[in-house]
Amino acid sequence: MLGRICCHKPTASLWSQILSHLPFTAFGAVVGITILWITLALGMTGERYHAVFMGGHALHLIGSAFATTALIRLMRPQSAFLFVAPLTVVTAVLLCHTSDVLIPILGERLAGFTGAHTHAHNLEAWAGKALLALAGVVLGWRFVTSKLPHLGHVLVSTAASAAHLGMSGASSEIGLVTAGLLTAVLAIAVWLPCCVSDVVIPVAVAKFSAVGQPASARDAHPAT
C-alpha cells in the first residue's frame, strides 16, 4: 500500500524503505544548495528568504500531515480520526520544526554564519502551525487514494530548510568544504524527519493497530 504514494515497494523492510528515500533527499539537497548559491549570488535579501521560508514551512506542515494521514488510512483504514488527527498534528509540527529550523540552525552554527539564530515562538505561532497540520490531516483523510509523490514532500522541505540557511547570513563565496557541509546538513534535515513522517509513523500505527486482529482484518484496505 505504501507504494501507491511513495517510491518503494510495500513488501520491503522498514529500513530498506527508509534507505530508498535517500536518493530523493540527496538530489533535493544538491538542488537546494545550488539554488541557494545562485540566489545569494544574485543578491537575494534576507527578507525574501524569510518569505520563502514562511511559505515553504507552511506547505511543509500541510504536506507532512497529508502524507502521514493518507498513508495511515491506506494501511489501516479502520483507524479512528480522533486517534490519527492529534497524533499526526503533533508529529507534523515537531518534525517540520526539526527539519526546517533546528537542523538548519545546527548547520549554520557549524558553518560559522553570524546570522544563525533561534526562533522564539509564542503560543499563537504554535497554534497556527497546528492548524496548518490539521488542514493536512483533513486533506489526507479525504483524499485517501491520492498518489502524493514523496519527491514533492522532499522539495517543499528542502525549500524551507534552504531558505533558512539564506536567512542566516550565508554568502555566495562559501568554500567547497562549507558547501559540502551545508549539503549534508540539508540532506539530513529533509531525510530523517520526512522518513519518520512518511514511513515510520504509518508503519508503526499499522502494526500497532493490527495486534490481536484476525488476518482478514489486517489485510483489509479501501478500494482505490
Supply the key terms.
224 residues; mainly alpha
How does the SSE layout of this entry go?
Blueprint (H helix, E strand, L loop, with lengths): L13 H7 L1 H20 L4 H30 L5 H31 L11 H20 L7 H18 L8 H35 L4 H4 L6
Helix pairs in contact: 2-6, 2-7, 3-4, 3-5, 3-6, 3-7, 4-5, 4-6, 4-7, 6-7
What does the model show?
This protein is mainly α and 224 residues long. The protein has 8 helices and no strands. The chain has helices spanning 14-20, 22-41, 46-75, 81-111, 123-142, 150-167, 176-210, 215-218. α3 (46-75) packs antiparallel against α4 and α3 runs parallel beside α7 (176-210). It starts with 13 loop residues before the first helix and ends in a 6-residue tail after the last helix. Residues 1-8 and 214-224 have low confidence and may be disordered.
Structural class: mainly alpha
Task: Outline the biggest β-sheet.
Answer: none
Question: Which outline best applies?
Answer: globular
Helix and strand string, N-terminal first?
HHHHHHHH
Q: Number of helix segments?
A: 8
**Unreliable spans:** 1-8, 214-224
Short description:
The chain is an all-alpha fold. Helix content is 74%, strand content 0%. The model is unreliable at 1-8 and 214-224 (pLDDT under 50).
